[in-house]
Amino acid sequence: MFKKAFAVVALAGALVLGTAAAASADPYPPEVSCTVSPTPVTVGATATIACTGFDLPTALFGVQSGDGSLSSIVLADADPVVVEKPVTNGAASATYTAPSTPGTYTVLVAQTDGEVVEDVAEVSVTVAAAGSGAGSGSGALPATGGTVPGAFIWLGVGAIGLGGIAVAAAVARRRAAGNR
Question: Domain range holding 82?
Answer without folding.
Answer: 29-130
